Amino acid sequence: MTPDAKSCFVRATAGRAAIVCRRLALLLSAAWIMHAQASDANEGSAPAFCPVAGDTNVTALLQPIRQKFKVPAMAAAVLTSEGLKFMGAVGVRKRNTEIPVTLADLWHLGSDSKIMTSTLVARLVERGPLRWDTTLAEVFPEFAAQMHPDFRPVTLLELLSHHAGLPANLDLAEYSGDNARQLRLRAVQLELAKKPVTKPGTTYAYSNLGYLIAAAMVEKTTDKSWENLMTDEVFQPLRMASAGFGGTGTPGLIDQPWPHTADGIPVSQNGPRTDNPPVMGPAGRIHCTLPDWARFIQDQLRGARGQPALLSPSSYQRLQTPLFGGDYALGWIVVSRSWGGGKVFNHAGDNTMNFANVWVAPNQDFAILVCVNQSGSQSFAATDEAVGALVSLVKKK
């Protein structure tokens, strides 16, 4: 799937970006989400009612992009190492309603959660309970005998950089339930007994499973859940008060952006359970407001620029540097762009109902965040074009 990307900076890699975005999408179990009927949505057209909020320069750019790609709503922000500079939101929380999105709304980040999981690991590595080269066999000696021999020496670095030889996903129907920590431990026991997809340490293969197994290593080492650790070690220090896990909104109420499938149809329900199952949290179940996401990305930007931040400079270098060739670091795709003055970081997230896209340009001291409450290629193309427009706005300002 290759969307017709025409922004001023992604044209050369549109195909690759589309492939990455689909790899980032977590696979939903049918038992978790039931789609609404197509007759319930005005498929093929953007909602006519388009309220706006925030900086008029941003909303003026987003309005025609939203209309062009027929998405219910879009929100975007621009920040520097000093903090959030301007943001805006356009559109409605749910197609066929006139309930506007707001600047205080929660947006689902999908696989943009991965860099947050890697940041948590870096916090623990700095304090000593873990090392980047800690192996699966070290942390789980009780399962080592039944692990496939190739998995025993796999390290945290290999898991977080998608070089562990694991498949992309679990069979989610076999891992439903609310005890995420126990289910992640079950995945360690059962999935690592299987033959690797590729030889660990040799090949890039995007794997959501790798991130939840890395989180299981963290949970075993600390005797705390990934969810509690994320809150204590990342969200609270960065003052991300809105950050949470799972789908957004009160079930049945349109009090947050409502999730939509790739064809623009509102899903049949909303709320915390309208997401991939909790076991997949470390790979992509975080939501927050744009200002709070900006706090996290500001910290990554400051770290990349050698400024005081949550982690040590060496930890940011580790998070933001591909280690096994290619362009994937530990939750960031690292490429070069002229508009960014060289090295830039990117990631996208799609839980099949929402889409998020982030670009960070350390050499130019800015980052751009864009969210859409709809999945799929149209949403990728919309966020891609919005980033291009916002890059031009940043250059003008």
Written overview of the protein:
There is one protein chain. This protein is 34% helix and 14% strand. Strand 7 and strand 8 form a beta hairpin. It is built from 13 helices and ten strands. The chain folds into two domains: 251 residues, DD-peptidase/beta-lactamase superfamily (Beta-lactamase, 3-Layer(aba) Sandwich), CATH 3.40.710; 114 residues, Beta-lactamase. It has a seven-stranded antiparallel beta sheet with strand order 1-3-2-10-9-8-7. It is α+β, with helices and mostly antiparallel strands and 397 residues long. Helix 3 packs parallel to helix 8 and helix 3 crosses helix 9. The N terminus is likely disordered.
Helix content: 25-40%
Overall number of domains: 2
State the distance separating the first and last CA atoms.
35 Å
Order of helices and strands: HEHEEEHHHHHHHEHEHHEEEEH
Approximately how much beta-strand content do the residues carry? 5-15%
Low-confidence stretches: 1-43
Oligomer category: single chain
> What Rg, in angstroms, do the CA atoms define?
20 Å
The largest sheet has its strands arranged as: 1-3-2-10-9-8-7
- Report the biggest beta sheet as strand number plus sense, adding barrel if it closes: 7 strands, antiparallel
**Structural class label:** alpha+beta
CATH class of the largest domain: Alpha Beta
